[in-house]
Amino acid sequence: MPAAERRLSTADERRETVLRTALATFGAKGYYGTTTGEVAKAAGISQAYVYRLFPDKQALFLAVVERCFTRIRESLADGVALASSTTPDAVLLAMADAYAKLIADENALLLVQMHAQCAAISDPAVREVVQRGYARTVEYVRGVSGADEDQVQLFFARGMLCHLVVAVDAAHVDAPWAQTLSIGLRHYT
């Protein structure tokens, strides 16, 4: 390709590529199991360039976790727009449906959330990002749904149960324990 037609990626474009790639990589192997070298290789760039964009692996992981919370918030907003009415139950149901579709379509989001929650136990910086993400998400859900505290708590409890059901593939296990955990949950495959 002639030099005049060649378009170099900007730092912002490379950053987006690294974040997309890191989402999949961290989703597959977790925070502790992933190296920046693996992210760089998957993104088709040098590890040194990853470090130009993010000072260290932790900063990259934190940016990926933030990205997950942003994507979840967008999905919840999509659900609100599709709600059958403005009652708290209808809005919560529509948001839950949108989230179930999101984690079915973008499985790495679910995986990164689970890895981040585990890493938050021992890493204060990860814990802080996860806390902030949930704080914003809880306040968003409360604000747009008009739900009371118990309804909001149940919404998030069911979401966490969905994580477990998906993680252990309980929807496809023909056993009483799996059926009990899966009752009333929507699954998209």
Q: Which helices and strands, and how do they pair?
A:
Layout: H1 11-33, H2 36-43, H3 47-53, H4 57-82, H5 88-105, H6 107-120, H7 124-145, H8 149-167, H9 176-182
Radius of gyration computed on alpha carbons: 19 Å
Provide the helix percentage: over 70%
How would you spell out the order of helices and strands? HHHHHHHHH
Distance between the termini: 41 Å
Oligomer: single chain
Query: Runs with pLDDT <50, length 5+?
Result: none
> How would a crystallographer describe the biggest sheet?
none
Q: What coarse outline follows from CA principal-axis ratios?
A: globular
Fraction of residues in β-strands: under 5%
Q: Please, what is the average pLDDT? A: 92
Describe this structure in words.
There is one protein chain. This protein is mainly alpha-helical. It has nine helices and no strands. Helix 4 packs across helix 5 (88-105), helix 4 (57-82) packs parallel to helix 7 and helix 6 crosses helix 7. The longest helix is centred in the middle third of the chain and has 26 residues, at 57-82. It starts with 10 loop residues before the first helix and ends in a 7-residue tail after the last helix. 28% of the residues are buried.
Structural features:
single chain, 189 residues, mainly alpha, 9 helices, 76% helix, 0% strand, globular
